[in-house]
Amino acid sequence: MEKKENDFEPKIIAFLCNWCTYAGADLAGTSRIQYPANIRIIRMMCSGSLDPTYVIKALLEGADGVLIGGCHPGDCHYLNGNLKARRRVAVMKSVFKNAGLEPERVWLRWISASEGGYFAETVREMVAHIKKLGPNPLKAEWAL
Amino acid sequence: MEKTGSVAVFGAGIGGMQSALDLAEMGYKVYLVDSKPCIGGVMPQLDKTFPTNDCAMCILAPKLVDSGRHPNIEIITGTDIQKLEGTPGNFRILLNKKAGFVDEKKCTGCGDCVESCPVSVKSEHDEGIGARKAIYRRYPQAIPNLFSIDKRGIAPCRDKCPAHVNIQGYTALISIGEYKKAYELIRKYHPLPSVCGRICHHPCEAACNRKEIDEPVAINYLKRFVADYCAKNGLTSGEPVTAVAGNGKKVAVIGAGPAGLTAAKDLAEKGYGVTMFEREARPGGTLFTGIPGYRLDKEVLFKEAGIVLDHPNIEIKYGLNIGRDKTISELKSDGYAAVFIATGATVSRALNIPGIDLQGVLNGIEFLRTVNTGGNTRFDGCVVTVIGGGNVAIDCARAARRLGAAKVNIMCLESRREMPAYAWEIEEAIEEGVEIFNSRGPDAIIGEDGRVKSIKCVKCVSVYNLEGKFKPVFRKEEISNIATDDIIIAIGQTIDPTVLKGLEAINNGAHAIKADTLTLQTGIEWIFAGGDALSGPASAVEAVAAGHAAAESIARFIEGQDLRAGRDWKPEKVLELPDRPVKKEARKKMPALAPGQRVGGFMEFELGYDEETARAEAQRCLNCGVCSECLMCVEKCQREAVNHLMQPVTSEITAGAVVIATGFDKFNPSALDEYGYRKFDNVITSGEFERILSASGPFEGHLKRPSDLREPKKIAWIQCVGSRQARKQGNIYCSSVCCMYSIKEAVIAKEHTPGVDCHIYYMDIRAFGKDFDKYYERARDEYGVKFRRERVSLIDQVPGSDDLVLKYLDANGEVREEIYDLVVLSTGLIASGAGRLFADIAGLNLNRYGFIGADRFFREQTGKEGIYLCGTALAPRDIPETVASASAAAACASAFLREARNTLSVKKEYPPETDISGTEPRVGVFVCHCGINIGAVVDVPAVVAQTRKLPGVVYAEDNLYTCSQDTQEKIKALIKEHKLNRILVASCTPRTHESLFQNTLREAGLNPFLFEFIGIREQCSWVHIKDKKAATEKALELVAMGVARARLLMPFQRTSFPVLKKGLVIGGGISGLAAATSLAGQGFEVFLVEKEKDLGGNLRRAHYTLEGDDVQAMLSAMVARVKSNPAIKVFTDSELKDFSGYVGNYKSVIADRSMNREEIIEHGVIIVATGAREADTQEYLSGKSEKIISQRLLDERLAGGEKFNDVTMIQCVGSREKERPYCSRVCCQEAIKNALRIKTLNPDARVTVFYRDIRTYGFSEEYYQQARAAGVNFIRYDPDQDKPAVALDQEGFPVISYQNILLGRKDRLKTDLLVLSTGMDPQENKHLSSMLKVPLNKEGFFLEAHAKLRPLDFPAEGIYLCGTAHSPKTIAESLTQAAGAAARAVTLLSKDEIQSRGLTVQIKDRICSGCGVCVQACPFDAREIDPETGKARIIEVLCQGCGACATACPNAATQQMGFAKHQVYQMVEELV
Question: pTM of the entire structure?
Fold first, then answer.
């Protein structure tokens, strides 16, 4: 069944690092910057502790997108966790592609603690993008 | 006397916070005092930091939070020092805490108040580009997370209003459309707003500060608008008034004019029964009988008076004439406790001239009364002349004009300027065709057949005598005649004397009452009088003021209180024009009928503002007082935390030592006319530009210019604004940071908007710090920032545009122009007012620039024992230098108070933790409304109801404020009652409140890690304000996710490790010596290892500093102190051979080369102070001739007294080149020092310096100026185009060929002696770096943990660095770093044991294959493979808890606590 783009409200799971992006999301809040309510944030200590299986789990369970947020390169609280995340996401995406998953459902962004506006903008952009992509096909396949 | 184990740190910028954190960790109690309402200083305003482009807020926020949470730091904000007494070790410090008008204990930082505040002013945090409210928090992340109100004093409008109506308050409320609130606010002070809005003579407007800019705010029109708006929309009735429980006392008020009505209202509201006696049939007094309808619609008056009279405590008797029908004395016997005479001045003064009895002569007051009460008078076709120059005369004339008079004249004694009538009324009368004959006295009325024919006038020469008394002088011979049919006499009025029948005691005989002007009490104590009855004719608002005064006096009289106490209106401060730029904007015109239409009848001719006009006009208010006291915030705050009556509080603290960290102020470029700052919108300061760039700034990080919010295409920076200027408005010194911050700003601007053209106009680029030069070069070569060595002489605006034209002198000295969209002034740092004040109070010396003068070697010393200094309080400098200096000051205080350490520091005791192993999860959930911050958007009860159904949840409730103290007590009780073993709070954000709740758990005997925080305010209610349904759904899911995680939370066990209270210092140069001395001074044993035979390092061969201080004297004293200190064990000719262990527990092998033996030492910390060395060079024939030497050799020869005739120096030899791409920082100072010394020994010597940029930063700039003045010749060269070349001539003299930039030609210079400034090389550090596992940078200097905020730490805890091992620096800078590194070390050494962060990961040995991937993944070397078991293990003390190992582990043998894989899976499941 074709759903109209507008009716579809994607669900996005975000894994955000405690030190930068989570703080950026916080600042979006304190600054009352409005963004779509499609995102659910899971706070991690570091983007470098993101296990790829979390992303796979989220997509398999039917999340329409996954956002991973870390500190800008050089700003990592744990020296280089964000770089580890970057490598992992790159590998993940290439594996996803081969496995028939849609790599563009997974976004990695560097968002600092002072970039509340950028955080909100990222959510807006991602929701719009995922709306265009349509619902995660895995959701349908698993539905009984 | 024993010393006190506490330190007061003044100034809570980055320096103050660092000092406080260090001292608190060392075991001292710290008072961190700042005059601002929050801590953080200037750093929160910065966008990025150089040279790493780190986000300033990101790196600062953890420090803010640490300072806010540290149990040993007491933050005292909004507070200034008043007095410093006592003795070093026991200072008594008197503090004055300004009133913030918000109860710090009650405020939760929710921000509800801000939304309601109508006053917007320029935000200091946004450097005036953005706005903030009068109730505000400086920036969102501020610590403490509290709001405060900015009150400046009394606005002049309110001061000058006789009734002191809160004008700024209602104007502000109108500006945001809160009309009902505005109306109610006016009515608090004035019972008749609509009336006042029409007829008030508005002294407020005359006082309005806005008149200095354009025109005063149209206050009166605004008042009329809001009153009319409310009347029209049924908003005038507030809450239904119920009778205040009658206190049985009755008061009589005679006259229902403005004074009477005001007094009646006040008294009725106080609970008195008021009876009003009014002789007319309607209320209003003179407002009714005296003011014609074209100025005041009677229905408006009656309606408003009716609101007053509706009060159940007020009764009014119309048509009763006191004095005739009933006397005042009879009122007394009727049981009235007091009487207020407010009858007005209702009797016209008589004019005694011949002809006054002729027909056609009318009494003005009577005439107006007839007209106003509906009587019938017409002047159709007649000429009417009014005698008198006051307002009544004008009213009579204008009324006559409306009653058909063909012509109306006014004649009066006064000249036009002297007329007592209001100027605008005279204007309006003239507009309506009234003719005024000034300076004429009526001599006689000429009649014909008993009727008026004309008036004979004589010239009035003057009206008042020299004392200002009414004493008209006439020139009788100058006669004129005014032909007229009717005459109206309006020359003043008095009280009707019949009122006072039988009360001669209070009648002054001259038709007036005698009464006290303040209390309004007459000679008969129960009789009070006010309004026109007392003062003679005055304005309605003055009558209102009298009504208030009478009511207050009467109440006091009846209650038997002192009538005078505290009655004077004496505002502490009446405000002047606020010091901020204001755009001109004309006052909005009042729409009105044309004069021709007006005279057709008595309808009001002013038509009133419409809503849009009113709001726009209200927005013209400058908010002089900032807070308008409209009290909206009081109403909004559900915690009842706002208290507008709060007073400043004085308190005393006792501190053993003091650290001054008062920072700097920013130079204000307004004084430099040529730059047009404040004159042109697009000339801004660098501070303003930082805010423009900042993602949290006014433009959310979008590069825009202020004038039109357009993206600038071309930006110029002008360097050295307020610095390096010998002029009065500037400072001579260099501000040290401006070159770098400007380069950074240009780079960031380019990153924001890649096409933007960035030009930096400079004298010398002073990129002298670690990695600065590389940053500068990258900006130039990679980013394309253009550096222009040109002097800007003038900035002007391009006519007809907001663009700016820069006039500058080019290299040939010609004046050129270039156009820019935006100009940034790189303003310097100046000595802070707070620092000067402190110095004054503590009796400290200031240097000539106003910075606190300090010891030139040990710069953190103030010269007074127990008082230390750091950061920019002592000189302009950058953040890492400030941080190092802050640690050094902490070291000084710590050494001074050594024996009092740990006497006042807090160690909180908690009950033993409940063992929850083997128990089922019992989750307690607390969902916060946060006032209405969450509750108004998220359906909190629904969230609670749903949460109760979740597995594991045994208790859930909602709270108005979960963070309040009473809720904490409740949570503790509920934990016990329901045996809760996991707690989830859904409220604001863990970043501010997590530790608060974790502390509550600990107090209830739960492990603090059994806590989960869900941010439904920052993530739901605040970001989805308009979509309540989605916000609630999201909150439900997030809480469910949190519960899923909470169910699986397990306690963390922290383990402790003992600390060996000894330190190892590697390097026996000046830094090592100082570090060792500092450690020993703070009470710890030290091992000092030096590779050479003697202590002293490079300085053994140095003689004088730039300032002329004797280096050898200082050094030998230091060496002697170290050698004689029993706590320091010195190893010379030795080196570190082997090293093992971890923080707090190191084992080192020291090999003594000369003795050929090894010693094993154990210690807790290491300080690396291995120094640097003079760089070698082959350039410029170095080493090929004894006529070519280094600066060091020159220094030695000068120290020996040698004189020179001709010396040439070349700077940057081998520095800032490919092989050494950094500035060695000290060479310019060294060259200038030697040049000056040559000149001192031989003033005729020729000294030439070839340089690229002279980098005499900070106060050393002064010596550069001296050298120039002394005739030292500075010749600039450009290394890319025309580096000087050196050859030896036949006699062996060096000859330098160079490009003469000024003359544009090649030149040659023969010299006696060529001196090369060769810079510094790092030591061979590779071996040490790999042994200690600490990093080096590309050039081979040691690399600190963080370039800005951890300059003295290595990433690995327990190892520190200082001195030139870090990067090139001066002696004083090395000494600062050395003491600072010692302080950092003592934060560890002072502890008996260190706690791990908690068991943050767990390893299942059964699954671990010992592959070692985790060892690779750990950035902190906290993982290793146990050689015995072959399994991975954690060095807990090093683990920082990032979880990298758990993620890297290929078979999930490692799990991160709190983020175990199954835990995260369950969280994900709850969300999807």
Answer: 0.83
